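1st attempt posting a full record on here, be nice pls
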Amino acid sequence: MDINSAINEIAGLVIHPFLYVFHSGQRIYFLYLVAAIVMAFAVYVAAKRKKDNDAQSFFSFCFPKEIYTHPSSILDYKFFFINRIAFALFLGTLVLSSTMVSAAVQSVLGSLFVAPGNDALIPIALAGVVLTLTVLLAQDFGIFFAHYLLHKVPLLWEFHKVHHSAQALTPMTVYRMHPVDDILTGTLSGVLMGVVYGVFAFAFSDAAQEIKILHLNAVVFVFYLAGYNLRHTHIWLPLKGIWGKIFISPAHHQLHHSSELRHADKNMGFIFGIWDWMFGTLYIPERKEDFRLGLHDNEDREFDSIAALYFLPFRKAIERVRRPVLDAQT
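the predicted structure (as C-alpha cells):
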C-alpha cells in the first residue's frame, strides 16, 4: 500500500464515526433516534396529563442540560470517537466474526454428512423465517452471556466497570465500552450466530435467506425503532407483567446502571428478558425508582479521563491477580 492509499484509509476510519447516524447497523442511526424522540414525546405528554412536568418544555424534558453537558457525558462523546477509531484500526480483527465461523461449520458438516435437498426439511420460505428468528436468539443469548460473564467474573468486571462508571446516561453511553468488552461480546455473539448460519447454509445450500430491513435482521431493526435509545437516557419507559418478563425495556436497563446494591447484576439482557429470568437476574420495574447512576462506593469517580477508561481496568485486574499471591506470602 502506498502512502496516499494509507492516508486515505486512515482518513476514512477517522471520518467513519461521524457517519454512524447514516448506518442502519449502528445503534445511533437517525431513524432509531427519531423513533426514540417520538416515544419520549409520548412519555412527555403522559407526564403533562398527570401534571408531573407542567411548566417544562419538551426540549428541556428530553434533553436536560445537566445530563447532556455532565462531565461524564462529555467524556462519553470524546471516548466514542477515540475508541471507535482505535477499535477499527487495531482491535477489530481480534473479533471472531460470524462469517468465519459459518464457513468453518459449513465445511465441517460438508465433510461429515451429505447435505439434504433444499425442500427435504421445510419449505425455503419458512426456512428463511426460522433462520431469522434462530440467528436473533443466538445473537441475543451471545450478548447476554458475555454481559453475564463481564459481571460475574471478577477480572472481566474490572473492564466492564468502564461502562458502569457513567454518572449520566445519553444515547452515546452505549459506546462507553472497553475494547475487552467489545472483543468478548463480539466474539461470543459472532460464534453463536456463525454456527446458526453455517448449519442453515449446509442444510439449505445457501437458499434460506435471513429476512432483513436495510441490511439488518428485521427483528433487530424493529427493536431499535421501538425506543432502544431511551435505555441510555433519563426517560422512564417500563414494561410490566408478562411483557416485562419477555422484553428488556428502557427502564429495565436504567435500573441495570444503578449503583444501588438491590439492582446489582440485574437485567443483563439485550432484547429478551428470558435469559435474565432463566439465570435469576431479572428485575422488573414495577414502579419508578430513585437511584444514583454509576458504581458502588463512588468508584466511578476514578474513571474521569480517556486514559483512565483505557488503562485503569488493566491496573485493577493486575491488582486482583496479585492480591491472593501477596496474601499467601504474608
